[in-house]
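REQUEST ID: PR-0412
SUBMITTED BY: lab tech R.K.
PRIORITY: routine
TASK: structure prediction, single protein chain
INPUT:
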Amino acid sequence: MKWLLALMAVFALTASAADITGTWKATLDTGGQTMERTFVFKQEGAKLTGETTSSMLGKSTIADGKVDGDTVTFSITGSMQGQDVKLTYTGKIVSATEIKFDVGGTIGQNIQWDAKKQ
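STATUS: complete
OUTPUT:
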């Protein structure tokens, strides 16, 4: 009986895990100026793939993407003024329609994006 309860608990956790597949629009307020970024995520279990587009870096492919509970992590590489820029995203799934990302990397500062599912 105990193994049955344990198995049911595992299935319940798996069923409640967030699936962030789809298109998300994120905004960043940079002191009165708003920037936008679009994410197109495809999640298969814990693996996350897709792409993201912004006016600053253009289109980038999501690498090393993972969803673990309510945490999302991935990196992207883009080009800014002829230099390769690698950004590392760590997100917290707030709800089925909102993710808050902290972004760091070779830009030298951390920034926050607030993403909403479209």
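NOTES: The chain has one domain: 19-117.
REVIEWED BY: pending
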